[in-house]
Amino acid sequence: MTARTGEGLARRLDELAGFVVELASGRLDARLTPSHESDDIDAIVVGLNMLAEELQGLTVDLEGRVEARTRELADAHAALESLAHSDPLTGLANRTLLHQRLRQVERSSAVPAVLVLDLDGFKAVNDSFGHEVGDALLVAVADRLRGVVRETDTVARLGGDEFAILVHDASPGQALDIAERIRTVLAAPVVVQGRTCWVSASVGVRLGGRCGDSTDDFLRDADTAMYRAKSRSRGGVSVFAPSMRREAQARTRLADELRTALITGQLVVLYQPIMDLETDRVVAVEALARWRHPERGFLTPDVFLSVAEDTGLITALDLWVLETAAAQVARWRADVLGDAPFTVHVNVSPVELRAPRFVEDIVECTRRHGLAPQDITLEITEHRLLGDDTLTRDALGELRAAGVGVAIDDFGTGSSSLGYARRAFVDEVKIDRSLVSDLDVDEHQLRITTAILVMAHAFDLVPIAEGVQTAGEAEALRRLGCRYGQGWFWSPPVPATELEPRLRRQRA
Fold it and tell me: Contact 136/77 with Cβ under 8 angstroms?
């Protein structure tokens, strides 16, 4: 081998070594040119070039797969972000995203307003037509809410039938204008799955802000204002004021104390007699809850009833009154009444009529105390009846079929009860005391009460006049053909021990 040949061989070997280094460093697009000498080195060159091409193809394929996988991961992350920040039913923002955007506003110079709204009548729709119709109604409401806000505002579903709107930067007038637009768009009926649904919204508004206000402050205050609007009149708008926060705190404290009262025996039941106006005999009693508050003294239901309903304590309260009254009537029947007809009236919330075992619980209570279902009459306040609601009607029908009496309380102050009376879902109507007052001296009052009595008799309902205060009112009711009355003219609500001597004398 000559020197020149040796130099050429060394150069080619150096090229091979450099090429291998380039491949190892990731330069897969590099290639060697064979010398066309068809020797072993050219064979190695061809092999290394083929290896480079294969490696380059594998790299391109791997990069494509990595890019595709990266896109998949990005899409999955975006989907998870969407799930984490949106309501799956309506597509609106959820509570988490609303809090985030409120915090963003906090860090800016914008002046936000928060509106919280709760649908009035949604539960009746949901219970009457089913959850599928209820969900469709929520979607329709969400679409309407989107149409009343600006692009910079956020509409969120907080859960159930409660929504919130963050007005990003607005004057009080603009925020209240949105609240009014909400009331307007929800006033129109919503047709879902062939059913016409009517709902309205009670709206609470939290305007502006003060230094130190947090996202929780805004939502809590708007929620407090919403409950104020709902308590005044459904479909109303209420603007938050600091006094509402104090009242809300007081209601929370009262609710905690009521829970304690139910456990520790602070509640008592008083009984007010219901009189037969022809015989002047006690034929029934109404059981009335009272609270012996350790600090505030003797409290009547108008102080704590709404708190009980808002917190769900109303069920425990009503059942406790029912059990206590049933046990008392059972004792009277054994010791005082004998077999004489006698009924105890117990007030219940219409919400309880919708409970799955409500009727069974009532019947079991009478059996447990050795009473007949006819010994119990449930009173439901007229303005609390839930409209043309299937569950309510069914429960009333089942109660009547079981023999339990049903009475509409405060009759004559509204119109919702007329449908129940017409369909024979109730047995008795208790004429509101506002229509009995001054009945013997007020001609206008006399005409109204006469009309109510005519209507009651036309529907085969037993009328009972409430709030009778004077002998003149009692006599006027007798002349009008009202058989039964109740009021302080005969007796205020009293403990069972005070009423018992009268029952004993009556039996004798």
Answer: no
